[in-house]
Amino acid sequence: MTHADVVIVGTGHGGAQAAISLRQFGFEGSILMIGRDKVPPYERPPLSKDYLSGEKSFERILIRPEKFWQEKQVDLLLGKNVSRLDPVGKQLSISGGETVSYGTLIWAAGGDPRRLSCPGAHLGGVHAVRDMYDTDRLKGELEGGAKRVVVVGGGYIGLEAAAVLTKLGCEVTLVEQQDRVLSRVAGEDLSRFYEAEHRAHGVDIRLGDGVERLEGDEAGDTVTGVTLTSGETIACDMVVVGIGIVPAVGPLIAAGAAGANGVDVDEYCRTSLPDIYAIGDCAAHANRYADGAVIRLESVQNAHDMAAIAARAICGEAEPYEALPWFWSNQFDLKLQTVGLSMGHDTTVLRGDPETRSFSVIYLREGRVIALDCVNSVKDYVQGRKLVEARAEIDPELLLDTDTPLKSLL
Fold it and tell me: E strands within 18-124?
């Protein structure tokens, strides 16, 4: 049986940062990372952007060079799934019949792509963009001549994929069940701006329509079309599905950990099971920037910051998780930077003119600034962070004036 003082399940941003932070904070015990990927930890955001477009090679998206893990004495057990957790015996059952025991466990397994549940969802040519292998398969079909693509989902993954695929010369149709893109994460001003931008670049956006079924070729092997709930069938060579993730917490929940949408953790990233932490996309926590609501945050920032919190706690330097959420998205030549959480806002301020392709949307609740979406507006993003942290109460009329620096309003 393999044993490590700290076992980390997951080799994404959270898992990698947990190992790095442990060493930075002086942890001298043994560390073992277990990951489903067969390669060392790598960045996920480029998968739907630079890596898909070919602008970055795999070596350039590695979180650290492979030798780094050896130098830090972090062992990697790759290409393995955890099938069962015994929290009493402190053991993990993993694929291949192996057993790993731990002193402390950090669960950083992220999530699995949410799949379409309609007829034909199993067909070849239907892709998610969650790991390197997904993107490699997609790239292979593009190189094989696939040109007509239907993207299902108008969130950031879907929009980023649509932007890259358009740049690569594909005919892209984007299908979104809601009446606007980004409906779950942004206000209408930002949604309408990105819809217009994508349409200007040739993306055919279908709103308020869902997928009824996927059509296959005569052999029933490969997708050839997408039939919408409206009855229309869109011919295609490929389908890219970006409709969210399902938190990968099955073994934790089966072992008795508390959780509904993911696994619940306290302010130190501890689950309800002894000596088990959870971080990143799969960890549901009470977030101060969501007025204490229990939420999951799917972002690199959240994974990194939670990793540091768990590592500090393990090293005896516990401090609560209170990090300010931030996100980003690159589409075409647009850089979107978001700070704070806009959920529950009751007022929006459009600062600047979207026609200039440089503006910000500021979100307020009960008169206080809770979030900003900044498009090609780095200054607003940097200065706006302070307003969100301070929960600044500011007259919306003052926020409108682009000649007034946000920092001057604190």
Answer: 31-35, 74-78, 82-86, 91-94, 98-107, 111-113
